[in-house]
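This section describes the prediction task in plain terms. A model, or a person checking by hand, is given the sequence of a single protein chain and must write out its three-dimensional structure as a string of tokens. No templates, partner chains or ligands are provided. The sample shown here is typical of the held-out split.
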Amino acid sequence: MSPALAQEPPTAAEIDWRPRAQLPSDVAQRLPSFCAGGYLPSTPGDNASGAAGSMESQPLTASGLEARYEIDSELFLEGDVRIQQGPFTVTGAQARYSQASGEVAIQGPLTSRGDGFLLTGDRASYNANTGYLDIRSATFLLHGAEMRGAADELVRTADNIVRVEQGELTTCAPGQNDWSIVASDIKLDQGEGVGTAKHMRLRVKDVPVFYWPYLSFPIDERRKSGFLYPAFGSSSAGSGGFLSVPYYLNLGPNYDATVTPQFINGRGLFTEMEGRYLSQYGQSELQFGYAGNDQAYADNEPGADGERWGVDFSTQATFNEYWIGYGDYSAVSDNDYLSDLNRSLSISQATHLQRRGGVRYLGENQQLDAYLSGYQTISDFIAEADRPYSQLPNIQYRGVGDLGPVTLGLDSQYTFFYRDNDTLTGLEQANGHRLRAIPELALPLRSVWGYVRPSVAVDYTRYSLEDYGLGDGDFDRSVPVAEWDSGLYFDRRSTLFDVPYAQTLEPRLYYAWADAKANQSRIPDFDTALRPFSFDELFRRNRFYGGDRVGDTNKLAMAVTSRFYDLVTGLERASVSLGQVQYFEDREVTLAGEGASDRSDSPLAGEMVLRPIAGLEIRTSGLWDPETSKTEQSRSQLVFHSEEYRYLASVGHSYRRNEFEQTDIGGVVPVTDRVSLIGRWAYDSQLDRTVGSLAGLEYNNCCWSVQLVHQNYLTDEQQLENRVLFRVELKGLGGSGGSSEEISEAIVGFDERERRRFGER
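The expected answer:
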């Protein structure tokens, strides 16, 4: 055969590559749909990764079809040559072994296997004493990182250290060079999980698009200091385009940091930092953002100097099986910081930033929670009288003990409330102490057919107030309470469409009586609000939450729940609940004029959950008033995802009579195995306008992906802000941009889809 017709030997990647149809079923099932195949080592056990061990301590074995041996000098092998030392093997056409030096000269075409790698080449030299391997015209494959490449010369200098001279590498499938790194010198350290490249060029479809004189990148899941990929995008709130270049600092096994300098058009230089620390007790995280001279802000805010900052700190520590500590502190320089600049702080668009720190004890029959908390209000639309109080401190204790057939419980709370009330008058000016204790005596009775729990209690509250303008600030309130909670449990078995199922019928009867004084208007409102009525409220004694109002009540709640269980899978396929309250007395206690009523019955409250097939869930809840024959409020949502989360869909509708009505639709629909459409739309019928939308495109293949979306959202000023979000990810080298987090907040199930996108579980 002439040289022109000679067939090129397969590369390392081609040797171990298998189309999807040839992969074992368990491997193929873990492969994303957009991957055409995967790597499968020829020899069992060769897919291991990690250190290979010291070569000089292991014997060298060699074989071939023909052998010639010079005693105490040299061994010559020819034909199907195989040399092995520990986990390292090499096969070739010829080999010459020098016993004195330990050098082996191998003529190819050759292949070499070790723990987690495969190499091929024209010729090679190997030192049995040091493990040094030098291959010319080489190709390589790292199984753990699924990284392949080629080089003029490839040198294995030590266990797990590979140097690539004048080479290139990629994580794309054989024959698919969508992207690759080309460099004069590449070092792959499997022991440390790090790759470095000098004079690196990033090529897309063989076209150079990026140059960097030196680059460090991970080749497995371990963390490594170095530049991450730049991020860029556009936002109408941020005055247009931005560009950021994050740098990751792997400072130690248990702490790291990321510094992200970025330039924002119209605002100048803005820097964000994130630090994480993991101790034997728990994890702490600090996030900080700083702009020294935000020119756009200074121009729009008279008197502002343009210096802006934001900080968020959180920590949690577990001291033992009973005690934990926690803390969370957030602060910003101005009310517009989050909407204008924030990209990394773990704070959503909020009106109040909470600062809280404390300890918690969780015992078998008791719980203690003691903390300090405060707030920063960051909305221009919150009146001084509506700003929350700091709690300095708040101490809560709950405990229960058995006294024969009865139980004695205590629910208690002490709080000192403080707020700067210098500009306020009347009750809104008050600060002070509040002690609340609810001792309860109950007789719980349970059986397989149901339960009964009668109880009596006293709801006691003591106040000691400062700046109280209505007389003596020391007073108390005692409210006797009686409750009866009971339920029955019935079940039957049948079949539906040849599927066996169990149906339950669970009627529940709940009675509550509280002899609270109607006039509690002399008590300040530190932390109290009227609970919105729903199905769960049927079984709550107090229609207020917080401690400053105790609702007078004399009511009987009747409800029934029915559940359907699939006996083959054990899943709850459906649940339906319906209930109503009958009132025997008018309710007179109010808070800010709300909470009183003379109706003898409540609206009908209902909930329904359906899971007819895997991946589909339909939820609906609402209130229907029999007096007006109208729906008072409702919330319905349909959520669907396919088995591998390729398809996502959600439809929601929220309604409150005479207040608002909103509809939202979102989803991800694959057009092909690799291209998907992403979208969400929210519409307010009362405002007759769109209040939020997101539309974009996602492309995936087995070695890279890209997301490009346009988003708008309604601000406090009822204006739609617009931004363009972009993310590109090169498998094995990380990604840039920040679209995924925004999409996850908008579309139910997208975060799970992201975890599965490259076969993660």
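For orientation: Confidence is low (pLDDT under 50) at residues 1-5, 44-53.
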